[in-house]
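Subject: for your reference before the review

Hello V.,

The reviewers asked for a structural picture of the protein, and I figured it would be easier to keep everything in one thread rather than splitting it across files. Below is the amino acid sequence we used in the manuscript, unchanged from the supplementary table.
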Amino acid sequence: MANVSDMERVSLFDRKILDDVDLSKGKCNLLDFGISPSNPGENLCMRPLCSDDHEKDFIQLLSQLTKMGDITEEKFLRRFNAMKAHTGTYYIIVIENIKLGKIVACGSLIVEQKFIHETALRGRIEDIVVDDSCRGQKIGKLIVETLLLLSEKLGCYKTSLECKDPLLPFYTQFGFVAEPDQNHLIKRFFH
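And here is what came back from the structure prediction:
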């Protein structure tokens, strides 16, 4: 497999999709703080995940969430290309500190195609992480709000996420609620 440096930089999805997200429809009033997908902060750029982000510490950022294992550039590109092949399913956004050339925050929206609700779409938000050095700048809120509004714009009938109890107050400010009589169950096959 060719090295990223030998290839043209490829985005996971069209950047224009982020430009069309209307933050004024969000719950967190982020525009009042002067941040948006086109202006996430000084030296910061919000954009889709790109094929050269392995070298920009994307995997190291994700390791602040969970155990990662050895994700070589080749493995990263193989997964990136598999996700890109499923147009309309994977929307991974990153915030890059362009001065440092480093990914400092990210989040994912996965859009499932369903048969229920007249062949509706369902969104799932996952892998929200902000680098320790960038917390407190509202970029985590910007990522979640952007993904939620994108989900709505794409026509998802609902969007869900999983989080640990200490993070409930953070996510409820976006309008997430626990559904009555619902349980989240999981079965892990490996650690």
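For the response letter, the relevant points are probably these. Residues 1-5 have pLDDT under 50 and may be disordered. Residues 139-154 form the longest helix (16 residues).

Happy to draft the paragraph if you're swamped.

O.
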